[in-house]
Amino acid sequence: MEIWNREFYGRLAAGADGHVAASEYVCVDHQAQYIEGGAADTNGKLFYKWIVWTCFLNGIVAVKTRLLLNEDQPTTLQQMTLYQKLRAEVSTLTQKTSLLENSKLTEIIAEDKRLLLNDPDVMTQIKQMSLELQSLRQKTAQLEQESTQMKLDLGSAKTKVTQLETSNSGFGSVYTRWGRKDCPSNGTELVYAGVAGGGYYTHTGAAVNYVCLPHDPDFIQGDTPGGSATIYGSEYQDNHFGHNLYNNDVPCAVCRAVTKSSVVMIPGKIKCYGDWNQEFYGRLAAGADSQSAASEYVCIDHQAQYIEGGGVNDNGKLFYKVGAKCGSLPCPPYYDMAPMSCVVCSK
Description:
Layout: E1 8-14, E2 26-29, E3 48-57, H1 76-111, H2 113-118, H3 120-165, E4 173-178, E5 188-198, E6 211-214, E7 232-236, E8 251-257, E9 263-267, E10 277-286, E11 298-301, E12 317-321, E13 341-346
Parallel strand pairs: 7-12
Antiparallel strand pairs: 1-2, 1-3, 4-8, 5-6, 5-7, 5-8, 9-13, 10-11, 10-12, 10-13
Helix pairs in contact: 1-3
């Protein structure tokens, strides 16, 4: 597995569970600063301590910049073809130059040296041929320079291609596979596996987003327990996601599509558009409309798994089946309470 670089670490924060407004979990640097002159208690978007957990940012959600060849740079095949063409032209011009120098001009001079010296028409022809020879020499020199430059460009292009072929570590895009402990077997690597979590489903100020909590957490030495924001595990609230999954805890896997730079989740589809690649497909999930805590839509893998020993009904962040509702949503192509599918695609 590739080694990831830590960008910073700190303490997880979110809005308080009892607040009306929803929030999300964010990572506050362990050497947090403040805005000068901003000490007045005017509230706004608030950051509360998160109970017992810490966080780290190891570039997991960073999109590594994908290296590309300059689009204006000719391909290797084009360069080789043009180079061969130029060499052929150089050879032809060289032959013409040799012919003019060693054949025609010699014949004229040999025919009658006195005539060459005294006949104005012949002298004009000689001058014209001399100018043509000079022009041909210049073109030959120019083509040789272009040929040399093409060789350099070809070498540079080969070097860039080699760098791209050997630098897969520079590519990659990250996504979470909800409901699974592993990543698809399509060249995708596992960053880490964990358990899905989030805010409690009845807390009005709970963080909105689902998060994938690792099995091997780290804590900052010296921090004391407590916090107005809390984070819980998660449970399936419907056998819609798989056989006998109701009330079972939800696993998750953070995956890196090594050779892809973009990832998108498309609701209502099980296949990707165009030349996008399917990472996985499944069923759309979210919190229930009637619950106090806000949530978000996520894609549960169609072959969902569960956490062993996690069948106790402890609630927490809950996953419910999502149905389409006609009205502002056009029907057809949708129909009322249609069970929503989803697919995660990469490119």
